[in-house]
Write a structure and sequence with these properties.
With 754 residues, the chain is α/β, with parallel strands linked by helices. Helices cover 36% and strands 21% of the residues. The chain is built from 29 helices and 30 strands. The N and C termini lie far apart (116 Å).
């Protein structure tokens, strides 16, 4: 082994040694450092008869040199060469260590056709000596001396089947080009992209010339970006290559994903809000990022840990709720996630799991209001819950799962005790799709006491607002039943909107012809009435569709508020489901003609003398005050009008306006309510501005507040269990704020003044 201090002294030795007669032609020159390589091949090129370039033995850009053909050419060379230089064998060995076996053949190459074959090898001493150990002559000292020359200069080359878009190092396309570059000089930093990378048995070494081998984009990402946290089955080869191609210097997962998605950092809510506007690759990136960064204990984290492919995401978001205990936070998060993903069709597996559940509270908890099928099931669940379970056990779930149904069921406070009570009961009956004893009692009270005449005609109220800056919207068929939901939809996200509800009386009979009071500039919306009269009316489907109509009315009204100071929403008449499906049919007065499917009858004369507590005579009509019908009117599937029940003849006049008043803020004075021996207690609330009314709603039940100064409000609570509660503070049916408090036992006795 001969060690040299410079390229010049090495070449001088090789020149002088060449004249000697030797049995073996090959001279191995072990070099270290890229500077040494560059200097040696430049100078040695001028000292030899021929240079053999291994890149020429690559039959296509992405294959290794054919070493068998190389050795065959050495044996069959036609011309005698005094000196030949072979380049760059070390790079072939580095890419494919299997090729190191050729060193044995080269070591024993005779001098028949080539006097000297010079084989410089850069930083492959380890491979070289492994092969020489298999040659007896080498171990016995029977081969030419090995030349060594050490120098400086590092080479770092990435070998991968893909390329990053933003690399700032030399890009080399294919093995053939890579070898040809080394034949001209060293490569200090480069990215070799070759489809052969996934098959190359490259060994990692710590030499001055290092290959960073990534057989796949997945391996590259897992090694450099996420510290081994990825699993290959989470993405396809194309997806990993797409992501790897976006990597920039210094990237970790958060920086890489953030740059691609144009977000500051991981935020699941923000990312899944973007979901439907993105292509498949970006959705996959959100999914992948969320698998690694979503917060433990969240529904999203649980779902993502259960599956390994984005294509299963929707199914697992839908069904994973069955694995978890009932939790309002998880239920809320799941629904919000489904909204962002636009999941409105549940898989068959969901419904199979749903059918197994017997508890209606658990049934309700796994549903959302995002599909018609689910909404129908929510109504069917409520039918069981309303009759058999305390509101306190399920109301909070309903507020999260289907807030519009909760807002619909909440009592409306208009100041009219009868109407507020009647429609609270009526809406419960609407869910049940049948009347109950309480509603029958109320409707009889309405009829017998002729309460209809306690209400002002709608026209008198509406006419007061007919001025230039007011827009009047007529919703055909909208009774007081829908006033609470509509006002809540108007004000829930608009703190500056105020709604005032006045209950008015429609003209009798409650048909469109007698109630057509709209002017040329008024807006008329007929969708509600169209659903009620549709020939294929089905419960609960048609009932559910109505909620969409009410929401659309709210959106139209909000749009109009940008052009008008006040919007008046009213109706020509309401609708009655129970009058339509009533089986209580009675004979008409003699000579009368049935109208409106039996809701009223046209009398022979205006002076017709009849007496009945359940209908009234108005002009020449006999009009039912209850849900009964006159015989001969036929059958009706949906909802009807024409009679004088509260739901038919009482309509809301809703004044919608923007207000500049300071939004009220509330403080709970006594957050721990102690119950007396009579199971009663008081909750005290302080408001930052004076109010004329304030209600507390707990589980859909109404507790009216009492005050002396409009600032401090007291709510009398009774029959509550010990525990934590959250309720809504409301004014004019609008939810202003949520309040939380606890209820505990505390003996409160009268001390008799002692």
């Amino acid at each position: 082994m001969l060690r040299f201090e410079s390229v010049d002294t090495l070449i001088s030795y090789l020149e002088s040694e060449r004249v000697k007669g030797e049995r073996f032609a090959t001279r191995f020159i072990l070099l270290s450092g890229c500077n040494t390589w560059d200097d040696f091949i430049l100078k040695m090129a001028n000292q030899v008869d021929k240079i053999i370039y291994l890149s020429k033995y690559c039959t296509s850009p992405n294959v290794l040199p054919n070493m068998h053909k190389l050795m065959q050419d050495f044996k069959e060379v036609e011309k005698y060469y005094d000196s030949v230089l072979l380049l760059p064998l070390a790079e072939c060995i580095r890419l494919n260590p299997v090729d190191q076996k050729i060193l044995r053949s080269l070591a024993l190459l005779p001098t028949n056709k080539i006097r000297r074959l010079y084989v410089p090898l850069l930083n492959v001493e380890e491979y070289f000596y492994q092969e020489m150990e298999h040659i007896v002559r080498f171990k016995a000292g029977g081969l030419p001396e090995i030349c060594l020359l050490y120098g400086e200069g590092r080479a770092e080359v990435v070998v991968a089947p893909f390329v990053a878009d933003h690399i700032n190092i030399q890009l080399v396309n294919g093995i053939q080009e890579y070898l040809s570059l080394w034949e001209k000089g060293s490569i200090r930093k480069a990215w070799l992209v070759t489809s052969l990378a996934q098959h190359l048995p490259i060994l990692q070494t710590q030499s001055e010339c290092r290959l960073f081998h990534y057989p796949s984009a997945f391996v590259y990402l897992n090694s450099n970006i996420v510290n081994g946290l990825l699993k290959e089955e989470w993405g396809s080869q194309e997806q990993w290559e797409w992501l790897a191609s976006k990597v920039q210097a210094g990237d970790d997962l958060d920086r890489l994903a953030g740059n691609i998605l144009n977000v500051a950092g991981f935020n699941a809510e923000q990312l899944f809000t973007l979901w439907n506007s993105l292509g498949y690759e970006l959705r996959w990136l959100i999914w992948l990022w969320s698998k690694l960064r979503s917060e433990r204990g969240t529904y999203l984290n649980y779902v993502l840990n259960k599956h390994n492919h984005i294509d299963n995401l929707f199914d697992y978001v839908s069904i994973s709720i069955f694995d978890l205990p009932l939790s309002l936070d998880l239920i809320r998060e799941r629904k919000e996630l489904m909204q962002r993903l636009n999941i409105n069709l549940l898989p068959s597996e969901f419904w199979e799991l749903y059918k197994v559940i017997e508890d209606p509270i658990k049934q309700l908890a796994v549903l959302t209001d995002l599909s018609t099928e689910e909404l129908n099931q929510i109504v069917l669940c409520l039918q069981k819950l309303i009759t058999s379970y305390p509101y306190s056990e399920w109301w909070d779930y309903l507020e999260v799962i289907c807030p519009k149904l909760a807002w619909y069921l909440q009592p409306v406070t208009t100041g009219d005790e009868f109407a507020d009570t009647y429609f609270s009961v009526y809406k419960i009956c609407r869910i049940m799709d049948k009347t109950n004893d309480e509603l029958e009692k109320l409707i009889n009270h309405w009829a017998i006491d002729q309460l209809i005449w306690n209400y002002r005609p709608r026209g008198d109220i509406v006419d007061r607002y007919r001025k230039k800056e007011t827009k009047i919207v007529w919703v055909d068929g909208m009774g007081v039943e829908w006033a609470g939901l509509l006002t809540q939809l108007l004000s829930r996200k608009n703190e500056d909107i105020e709604c005032e509800i006045v209950i008015a009386r429609s003209n009798l009979p409650t048909i469109t012809e007698t109630n057509n009071e709209w002017g040329a500039e008024d807006k008329i919306i007929r969708d509600l009435d169209d659903i009620a009269h549709h020939y294929d009316y089905q419960f609960p489907d048609s009932f559910i569709k109505t909620f969409g109509i009410i929401e659309d009315i709210a959106n139209r009204t909000l749009a109009l508020l940008s052009r008008y100071e006040n919007i008046i929403i009213t109706s020509d008449h309401g609708l009655s489901r129970f009058a339509a499906i009533s089986n209580n049919k009675h004979a008409m007065p003699e000579g009368a003609e049935v109208k409106a499917i039996g809701r009223y009858a046209l009398l022979p004369s205006k002076n017709y003398d009849i007496s009945n507590n359940l209908w009234l005579v108005y002009e020449d009509n006999a009009i039912w005050l209850t849900h009964n019908q006159f015989r001969g009117g036929g059958a009706w599937r949906g909802e009807i009008h024409g009679g004088a029940t509260p739901e038919e003849c009482l309509v809301p006049v809703i004044v919608v306006r923007r207000t500049s008043l300071v939004e009220p803020k509330f403080e709970v004075i006594n957050s721990n309510v102690k119950l007396s021996t009579k199971n009663t207690g008081t909750l005290d609330i302080r408001c930052n501005r004076k109010l004329t009314e304030l209600d507390l709603r707990l589980f859909g039940q109404l507790v009216k507040g009492k005050t002396k100064d409009g600032f401090i409000w007291t709510f009398e609570l009774k029959d509550l269990e010990v525990g934590k509660y959250t309720g809504n503070l409301c004014r004019s049916s609008r939810i202003l704020d949520k309040v939380s408090f606890t209820v505990s036992r505390g003996l409160i006795e009268d001390d008799l003044g002692l």
